[in-house]
Amino acid sequence: MHPLRRATPRRYLMCPPVHFDVTYAINPWMDPAKPVDVPLALAQWEDLRDRYRSLGHSVEELTPRPGLPDMVFAANGATVVDGRVLGARFAYREREPEAAAHLEWFRARGFAQIREPAHINEGEGDFVVTGSYLLAGRGFRASPLSHGEAQEFFGRPVIGLDLVDPRYYHLDTALAVLDDTADEVMYYPPAFSPGSREVLRRLFPDALTAEDEDAAALGLNAVSDGLHVLLPQEATGLFDPLRERGFVPVGVDLGELLKGGGSVKCCTQELRGPAGSQGPGRGEGGGGARAGI
After folding, report:
1. pLDDT above 50: residue 290
2. Which residue has the higher pLDDT, 72 or 3?
3. What is the pLDDT of residue 184?
4. Residue 3 pLDDT > 80, yes or no?
5. Burial of 206: CB neighbours in 10 Å, binned 0-12, 13-18, 19+
6. Which of 55, 109, 131, 263: disulfide with 276, CB 3.0–4.6 Å?
7. How far apart (Å, rounded) are the C-alpha atoms in residues 236 and 248?
8. What sign does the dihedral 90-91-97-98 (CA atoms) show?
9. CA-to-CA distance for 287 and 202, rounded, in angstroms?
10. What pLDDT, on the 0 to 100 scale, is given for residue 30?
11. Which residues are catalytic, by number?
12. Is the pLDDT at 1 greater than 90, yes or no?
């Protein structure tokens, strides 16, 4: 018998891909020789935004800036836990200005506890928040020193995980939280070192593990509200296992944005906490959808 699933209202920050392009390559997914269809990318992004809103979540938008084609991947700009904002410090100079754009947005909206990081981290690309832990990836982008910095700032235990496959360069490409109140996750084991796989098995013995084909479709780059799991529609092998666990998978087409190495989660930063009273917070309001199996 699966537990009763409940969707809780979320607050998200997204950035429209008005200036999206692939003019450089900083991960294996990017190929500057492949043309980008910006109107299609925008339409796919708007579909994701509208799906969130139709599910009862609030979405705020960060104004895109010319010359920053990767701003659409808003998850990388900061990590917000309990209303505290840890800014990003990007590994590559091409993305460095995005960090300041995000912090300006948070300051303008009254977030009081903001930290500019001393060490490289790329926001929710590197940090994944569960109910008990802050999971922290390392190996391709984040500095291991960012883990201690995050633990001190958020006051939550940080679990470091080593990424070993360059296709899964951020933790959010290899692991997703399905239920943040019950520490329920899904992940792709080959993306991690042997020791990190063992850590994941110990922490999450009942986790859903993905097969090669679904990971390669960036199926782990997903967002869950506790009931609905929005993920790339090509990750078909995850749909039935999610349903068997009582979740409602929602396939989304972000194929154009995949050219930049990101999908659903990369486009979605979660605003956890009450700062600014902007829209519904987690646990606020009513009408959370329920499902049981």
Report:
1. no
2. 72
3. 97
4. no
5. exposed
6. 109
7. 13
8. negative
9. 35
10. 83
11. 170, 266
12. no
Kindly state the tokens that stand for 270.
């979660």
- pLDDT at residue 280 above 80? no
Cα–Cα distance between 171 and 136 in angstroms, integer?
7
- 13 phi, psi to nearest 5 deg: -115, 125
How high does pLDDT run on average in the chain? 92
pLDDT at residue 21 greater than cutoff 70: yes
Q: What are phi and psi of 26, to 5 degrees?
A: -120, 10
Query: Would strands 223-224 and 208-209 be described as parallel, antiparallel, or unpaired?
Result: unpaired
Q: Is the pTM above the cut of 0.85?
A: yes
Asked if 233 contacts 251 with a C-beta cutoff of 8 angstroms, the reply is yes
SS3 annotation, the chain:
CCCCEECCCCEEEECCCCCCCCCCCCCCCCCCCCCCCHHHHHHHHHHHHHHHHHCCCEEEECCCCCCCHHHHCHHHHEEEECCEEEECECCCHHHHHHHHHHHHHHHHCCCCCEECCCCCECHHHCEEECCCCEEEEECCCCCCHHHHHHHHHHCCCEEEEEECCHHHCCHHHCEEEEECCCCEEEECHHHECHHHHHHHHHHCCCCEECCHHHHHCCCCCCEECCCEEEEECCCHHHHHHHHHCCCEEEEECCCCHHHHCCCCHHHCEEECCCHHHCCCCCCCCCCCCEECC
**Are 79 and 124 in contact, with CB atoms under 8 Å apart?**
yes
Q: What are phi and psi of 286, to 5 degrees?
A: -130, -170
* Both tokens assigned to 194: 């042997």
d(C-alpha 138, C-alpha 140), whole Å: 6
Give the pLDDT of residue 285: 32
Q: Which two tokens stand for residue 153?
A: 């700032």
Residue 68 burial (CB count, 10 A):
17
